[in-house]
Design goal:
The chain is mainly alpha-helical. The chain has one domain. It has 10 helices and 2 strands; from the N terminus they run βααααααααααβ. Strands 1-2 form a two-stranded antiparallel ribbon. The longest helix is centred in the first third of the chain and has 34 residues. It is globular.
């Protein structure tokens, strides 16, 4: 089991930030803004999934997960709050969050679905965030620009890597099978990538940078270059489809190191 603690990030998100906060790069900024727009709704769903999945466990299994579920919920609730503040600044900049309402409508379709499937969906999403987190921690220079926001994204990445096994292990404890696990990963992949592309394009269009050559040049290098996001995360994503896969098989050393080396940037809740 993973020993999860809740951290309060010691940065000021009340102060506005530049429109192209990510190193002056329009594409990288639009992509990270798009991801942030999904987080409040997504992380509330993850919280609800894990809580309800935990309650669905037989009593003899609940004690095994009690502390980890509490830590998971606390971490995700903190991520949701900070990204809500971040998204508030994006709204003031004239960006429109189309992803969140679309996701809310989609999630209503799950009201009659058993919680084991909710947890499978969460486990698939958590794998996405974990491999993105590891890539960001390894290529943290792509976040150079506003130090506050770089800290926020790397702290979020470190915690996503830290709790990457919670939903997966809970799904296994709920007797979730392999076929549904990979079925939901395929569906989540299609939906997640589609929503990311749509919101990123919307952000660029409202920013007035959609049809600039520099935007597409940046996108090509960022996604498919020598250390491109798609190029370096495809392998780790694909591993999820192995029958014997477990998230802990993928190294979390960068997360552990960042949290140890940046302890002055956060405080422990309840410490």
């Amino acid at each position: 089991m993973t020993d999860l603690v809740v951290r309060r990030l010691l940065i000021d998100l009340e102060k506005p930030f530049a429109r192209h906060w990510c190193g002056g790069d329009a594409f990288r900024t639009a992509l990270f803004n798009a991801l942030s727009m999904s987080f409040p709704v997504g992380e509330q769903f993850f919280i609800d999934s894990v809580r309800n999945g935990y309650k669905s466990l037989p009593e003899e299994k609940q004690e095994r997960f009690r502390k980890e579920v509490q830590g998971f919920v606390g971490q995700e609730a903190t991520h949701r709050r900070l990204h809500s503040l971040f998204n508030g600044h994006l709204e003031k900049q004239g960006l429109v969050n189309d992803w969140a309402p679309r996701a809310q409508k989609r999630l209503k379709l799950l009201d009659s679905v058993e919680y084991r499937h909710w947890v499978a969906i969460t486990a698939a999403n958590e794998h996405f965030t974990a491999i993105l987190a590891d890539w960001l921690l390894r290529n943290h220079d792509v976040l150079d620009g506003d130090p506050r926001l770089k800290t926020m994204w790397l702290w979020h990445s470190a915690e996503e890597s830290e709790h990457k096994s919670t939903a997966f292990d809970l799904y296994q404890a709920l007797d979730g099978d392999y076929e549904w696990r990979v079925t939901w990963m395929r569906r989540v992949t299609t939906i997640f990538l589609g929503d990311t592309i749509r919101q990123t394009i919307s952000n660029l269009r409202r920013d007035g940078t959609l049809w600039k050559w520099s935007t597409w040049k940046s996108a090509a290098g960022f996604l498919f270059g020598k250390r491109g996001l798609v190029r370096e995360t495809y392998g780790p994503w694909r591993e999820y489809f192995r029958k014997d896969f477990h998230p802990e098989q993928q190294d979390s050393g960068l997360s552990t190191r960042w949290l140890a080396e940046n302890a002055e940037k956060y405080s422990l809740v309840g410490a």
